Amino acid sequence: MTLALHGIGVSAGIASGPVHVLHRELPEVPYYPIAANAIDTEVTRYRLAVDLARTQLRAVGLPAGTPSDIAEFIETHLLMLDDVTLSERPLEIIRAEGCNAEWALKLQCDALCRVFDEMDDPYLRTRRDDVAHVVTRIQLALINESPQPHETETDALIGHIVVADDLSPADVVLLQQRGIAGFVTEFGGPLSHSAILARNLGLPAVVGVHGARGLLDEDEIIILDGGSGILLANADERAHAFYDERARARQRSRDELASFIGTAAVTRDGQPVELMANIELREDLDAVRASGRHGIGLYRTEFLYMNRPAPPTEEEHLAAYRAAVEALDGETLTVRTMDLGADKQIGSGRSVASNPALGLRGIRLCLNEPNLFLPQVRAILRASVLGPVEIMVPMISSLTEIQQVQNVIELTKQSLARDGLPYDPNIRVGGMIEVPAAALCADVFAEYLDFLSIGTNDLIQYTLAIDRVDDEVNYLYDALNPGVLKLIQGVIEAGERAGIPVSMCGEMAGDARYTRLLLGMGLRRFSMHPSSLLEIKRVITECDCRQLREQVPAVVREGRPEKLRELMNNLDRVA
């Protein structure tokens, strides 16, 4: 009998092969007291373990020509080993508590993970996985654990599908070099570094398959569908034939998409559509350029604040924005001001909020912490003379916030003028619509802003009151919920009435299942992960917006799930 297991598909692709179960559980971390005269020896033991972990990470061989954004994941873990939170704080605990190094590291890891668990931003919250991966590597060094097969053997895993509790970015790189066909983990999410790395490497992957290691046997043949999040064990010949054809069709589709590189995104009835990309790191621009000339509709700047004891300076901000503007060669750069939460404030000393999702985050934090906000605003304005730059403000919920932001920008312009520093006086300022109240007030906001951008990730979870990264409730996360669709439609119409652009930069914009619906709603500016640009462009060129516009009102009004599916299928047939 075929066994079907379901998880979260994080890297599309079909793979079939024998299972390799990766068992790597740490033994329970022991506690034992350290005599006063042995403290220095214990401190040295910890430092040696950190050095060994560093050596192991540096030994991860990246082949020549490896994209820099892939190498960045390994570098992130190396930087964490050098950060005082892991290099020095456990030593302080050893000295203060008189405990063994393993226990001190556990206490520090628990404290760090609690902070990350309270973060509201899903991407930042998943950085706790990186902490856990680095800590595990140090713990293994402390207990002299022997290397895993994938760290030493060169060809034993060729064609295998690895099943593990979790994988670090270094694990993923090593496993890919060992020739695995794909991987499955019991934990993790789509925003983890390992998931992002799998997508960059083109490695099919499914995460969140609870209990997989206990249900699958070593060398058992399974089928892995990294797009739908399904894996099949003991599948029959018909299933293998079906997925083999799926794999061939996927490859044909990828070959066809290459023909869209550099072409315009125009519908069948002549409607031009602007496609832009979401990026975080400077290296993401390489992927954008690979699909043609595109502007940036969302430049996340939170990475500038991470893994450092003090906030970035104005010059550090400016260097990052200058590099992006120069790389875009005349295309627009939309910089989102920092979207950190009450849980992640540098140097503020404020305790973690009890509910950071509803706390001091986004623009609320910026206005409350001018020492963090002003250097960024000054740097964005200074970068605006280098090429087309826009400012985008996250998490707006009231007109008062918009007016306060505009006042800050105006005062900053005056300050730059006094300092003799040039800037674009007509820089465009827009707001992200992520809060239901903002969507309902879009008409008012549109009078004061130059553009609106719908952040569907937060808008959906706030509208439906669910945490989309909590696997106990994320089945309720539904972009087609009638309440969500009515809010999106209202924002697009508000932009049309005010004569200002409305874009969408959430994951919904890069999901081809919704492209026809959004075009029919009137959306003409999409911003997405660079890997989705060509697929969305292909769908756009197949569409007739006039026909879609006639069909969409019925979709937005429909509340019955089965009828909604039928109407969505009709959109595919219409255009």
Number of domains: 3
Number of strands: 16
| Helical content band | 40-55%
Please compute the radius of gyration using only Cα atoms: 25 Å
**Which residues sit in consecutive blocks of at least 5 with pLDDT less than 50?**
342-354
Please, what is the CATH homologous superfamily of the largest domain? Phosphoenolpyruvate-binding domains
Supply the number of helical segments: 25
CATH topology of the largest domain: TIM Barrel
Determine the strand fraction and express it as a percent band. Answer: 5-15%
Distance between the termini: 40 Å
CATH-scheme architecture of the largest domain: Alpha-Beta Barrel
The overall average pLDDT, rounded, is 87
Strand order of the largest sheet: 1-8-7-3-4-5-6-2
Shape descriptor: globular
Give a structural overview.
The protein has three domains: 3-23 and 148-255, Phosphohistidine domain (Glucose Oxidase, domain 1, 3-Layer(bba) Sandwich); 36-142, Orthogonal Bundle (Enzyme I, Chain A, domain 2), CATH 1.10.274.10; 274-504 and 527-533, TIM Barrel, CATH 3.20.20.60. The strands form two sheets. Strands 1-8-7-3-4-5-6-2 form an eight-stranded mixed β-sheet. It starts with a strand and ends with a helix. The protein is an alpha/beta fold and 575 residues long. Helix 1 packs across helix 7, helix 5 (101-117) packs antiparallel against helix 7 and helix 24 packs antiparallel against helix 25. Helix content is 47%, strand content 13%.
